[in-house]
Design a protein that fits this description.
This protein has 191 residues and is α+β, with helices and mostly antiparallel strands. It is built from 3 helices and 11 strands; from the N terminus they run E-E-E-E-E-E-H-E-E-E-H-H-E-E. Strands 1, 2, 6, 7, 8, 10 and 11 form a 7-stranded mixed sheet that branches.
Length: 191
């Protein structure tokens, strides 16, 4: 999806921005807040250049697709698991890439229940592994992912209540993934 935005540096000219709408899924086992062990499903994504990033499953919402249907489709493609229902959203992420003239909007939901056997038949050929990881071990794996993935997930996992939908905003400057400079956007008091 494309949109045009006014850019104060361009005067009356408009900036055309590509908007990526993405959904992410949290599949969590164990007893939340009950003192027992929790595990969360992470997938290994092979990126251009060969790097592997561990993230929750999810992907791009295709034009005309309902976001939660897209999320169920993505989870099934990436893991073989069929989700029976979703709750949330749990949190939202927005990343502005001004040098690439694009934005990334991610809405993350939690699976209510799921079934099936883990398998990997990702049509995009990106996901090469998936596993349930103890919540205490998540930080080490998701450190391989961009900060706009790792930081919001980490914040959600340590939130004892998990009943509000936090928003996380970032700006990523640069053209190549390996050269991006990412900053967290923090709301100023009174704005």
């Amino acid at each position: 999806m494309w949109s045009t935005l006014a850019d104060p540096q361009l005067g009356d000219r408009k900036l055309r921005v590509r908007e990526w709408v993405v959904v992410g899924g949290l599949l969590v086992t164990g007893s939340e807040g009950g003192g027992g062990s929790e595990e969360i499903l992470l997938v290994a994504n092979r990126r251009r250049g060969g790097a592997v990033e561990w993230t929750p499953p999810g992907g791009v919402v295709d034009p005309g697709e309902v976001p939660l249907d897209a999320l169920s489709r993505e989870v099934a493609e990436e893991t073989g698991l069929e989700v029976d229902g979703w709750t949330g959203p749990c949190y939202r992420v927005r990343v502005d890439f001004p040098d690439r003239e694009m934005t990334l909007d991610v809405v993350v939901h939690r699976a209510v229940s799921w079934s099936g056997v883990m398998s990997f038949d990702d049509p995009d050929g990106i996901v090469e592994d998936a596993r349930f990881v103890d919540v205490g071990e998540v930080d080490a794996l998701v450190a391989t992912a961009p900060v706009w993935v790792s930081e919001p997930l980490g914040a959600w996992l340590v939130d004892p209540v998990r009943d509000q939908c936090d928003e996380h905003d970032f700006i990523a400057r640069g053209l190549r993934a390996e050269d991006l400079v990412v900053e967290r956007v923090v709301d100023q008091p009174g704005t």
